[in-house]
Amino acid sequence: MGWAIFFFVYLVISIAMAKRYYLRRHGVPGSTGGPGTGTAGYIGLAWPITIFLARVRNPSPCYHMVHIAARNRAREILAMRRQEG
Ligand SMILES: [Zn+2]
Predict the structure, then answer these.
(1) Contacts for 10-15 with beta carbons within 8 Å, 24 or more apart?
(2) Which of 33, 51, 60, 73 lies at 20 to 30 Å from 18 by C-alpha?
(3) Count of domains observed in the chain
(4) What is the residue-averaged pLDDT of the chain?
């Protein structure tokens, strides 16, 4: 029974880690099968190692066209809201 709890806790941390990394790298919440989700998944599963990597803790923004567009859109919306007060 002990191993099952260990596995469950490991998996929960993996998912949280993958989601956190994905959001930081791509600037959008992870969607199943979207660009970069595979890498985020592997980084999440290898969290006992990847948690210490600077590239994972503070990733540089990705170059996916859809994500660049999404980040720009989010920035524009924020700027518009600020102008409106
Ligand atoms: Zn991306």
Answers:
(1) 13/47, 14/44, 14/45, 14/47, 15/44
(2) 73
(3) 1
(4) 93
